[in-house]
Design a protein that fits this description.
Number of helices: 6
Structural class: alpha+beta
Strand content: 15-25%
CATH class of the domain at 196-260: Alpha Beta
CATH architecture of the domain at 196-260: 2-Layer Sandwich
Number of strands: 12
Radius of gyration: 22 Å
CATH topology of the domain at 196-260: Arylsulfatase, C-terminal domain
Distance between the termini: 38 Å
Oligomer: single chain
Strand order of the largest sheet: 5-6-7-8
């Protein structure tokens, strides 16, 4: 069964490659072949049993890394571009909007995140941020560099991987005294998330309390993973909401991330 799953997945990838080839061939034969930018990216990766996980919705490498290929047109290649060059700087898909806007010669909006990748297209060794952040659900963030990956979860638990020596991210270095300076560096790069006053884990539930005084949101991770969180279950589990509220009243804390014991 597992072999069939792997074969089917690889067949799907192969078929997509075939269709891309047909599309590029048609572009080469068209009048637009000399003035068209090609920007190729995809959905994030899928685990097929690696790390004992099936699917997506994680902060690990395969769930957050995507292909990204940019091919300038012959008539408008940036100065300094070396055809076939590769760039291993950490970038993010939110960088695509300002990049495409600059390609089109338009003015980007000022209130959007992301940085145009045009400097890296011209020179892959251009000065650039040494990290990027991926958020997967409220309170869950992965900070990535060329070497390190730090993952902080909503309940305060964390993972740290040195991908130079552990490319498959098997050995969690969080809590190891030798890596305390690295941990502190990455903790400082995790977004503040001012919209939420508390992130709370209780059994298989995740509760978030807005900082504006709004009602608690409750998510059942036994039914819905931490990436989706589309359904507020507070009305369905009033006893859980009451238990969390009671615990919060009885335990004063300044911590933002809380684990309530059974």
């Amino acid at each position: 069964m597992l072999r069939k799953v792997h074969f089917t997945y690889l067949a799907t990838v192969t078929f997509v490659d075939h269709l891309l080839g047909k599309l590029l061939h048609a572009l080469d034969q068209s009048v637009y072949s000399k003035n068209t930018w090609i920007v190729l990216w995809s959905d994030h990766g899928w685990y097929l049993g690696e790390k004992e996980h099936w699917g997506k919705a994680t902060g690990w490498l395969r769930s957050t890394r995507v292909p990204l290929i940019i091919v300038p047109p012959d008539s408008g290649s940036p100065t300094g571009l070396q055809p076939g060059s590769k760039c291993d700087r950490p970038v993010n898909l939110i960088d695509l909007y300002p990049t495409v806007v600059e390609m089109a010669g338009l003015s980007p909006k000022e209130d959007v995140e992301g940085t145009s990748l045009m400097p890296l297209i011209s020179d892959p060794e251009s000065e650039w941020s040494d990290y990027t952040v991926t958020t997967f659900g409220r309170g869950n963030h992965a900070v990535s560099t060329r070497r390190w990956r730090y993952i902080q979860y909503f309940d305060g638990s964390a993972e740290l991987y040195d991908r130079n020596s552990d490319p498959n991210e098997w050995r969690n270095l969080n809590g190891h005294p030798d890596y305390k300076p690295v941990l502190e560096r990455f903790k400082s790069k995790v977004p503040e998330e001012a919209s939420w006053e508390y992130f709370i884990r209780y059994r298989h539930f995740k509760a978030v309390i807005p900082s504006n005084g709004g009602s608690m949101l409750l998510f059942n991770h036994a039914l819905e993973n931490h990436l989706e969180e589309r359904t507020d279950e507070s009305g369905k589990y009033p006893e859980v909401v009451e238990h969390i509220r009671k615990w919060m009243k009885e335990h004063s804390t300044l911590q933002k991330r809380i684990v309530i014991p059974d």
